[in-house]
Amino acid sequence: MSDNVTLARDGAITTVTLNRPDRRNSLSDPMLTDLAAAFAELRDDGATRVVIVTGAPPVFSAGADAGLKSGMSAEERRAAFGQRKSQFRRLFERANTLLESLEQATIAMINGHAVGGGWG
Q1: Predicted confidence (pLDDT) at residue 117 exceeds the cutoff of 70
Q2: Distance of CA 47 to the CA centre of its chain
Q3: Exposure winner among 2, 75, 85, 97, fewest CB in 10 A?
Q4: Which residues are registered as beta bridge partners of 9?
Q5: How far apart are CA 111 and CA 61, in angstroms?
Q6: Secondary structure element (H or E) that encloses residue 95, with its range
Q7: Complete DSSP assignment for 24-59
Q8: Taking the complete model, does pTM exceed 0.85, yes or no?
Q9: DSSP 3-state assignment of 3?
Q10: Which residues pair with 52 in a beta bridge?
């Protein structure tokens, strides 16, 4: 795994942690790619019976990391978000589908805000 997502195994329990606390665990394209890889790995892991998904403190997830800057005009924001919307949706749906299809019991350990695309 990368620094965006960590896996910690403790016997039959595996904890998947969204690990971008500096960005409030917002879901970027690289994080969604890493989440999909983690869930695919767990799908085939016969030793894991429970999967816990959590966020590195202080929040669970601030939602989508749109990459928008505060100095952008409304038009610039719309254009920037529109360009990456389909890519983000594809990556989000892939990670979410893999998560939903896990055979293990799955628990969301919400440890703070969970906003928008952060599986609120």
Answers
A1: no
A2: 23
A3: 75
A4: 14
A5: 9
A6: helix 74-100
A7: TT-B-HHHHHHHHHHHHHHHT-TT--EEEEEESTT-
A8: no
A9: coil
A10: 15, 107
Least confident among 1-5, 42-46, 80-84, 93-97: 80-84
Residue type, 24: R
* φ and ψ at residue 69, rounded to 5 degrees: -105, 145
Which positions ≥6 away from 33 have C-beta within 8 Å?
91
Integer Cα distance of 20 and 118 in angstroms? 12
Position with higher pLDDT, 38 vs 82: 38
Query: Token match 């904890």: residue?
Result: 15
Pair of tokens at residue 54 = 């959590």
Give the pLDDT confidence of 21-73 residue by residue, as tens digits: 998 999 988 999 999 999 999 999 999 999 999 999 999 998 877 666 667 77
Q: Of the candidates 38, 28, 58, which has an alpha carbon nearest to the alpha carbon of residue 104?
A: 38
Inform me whether the pLDDT recorded for 103 exceeds 90: yes
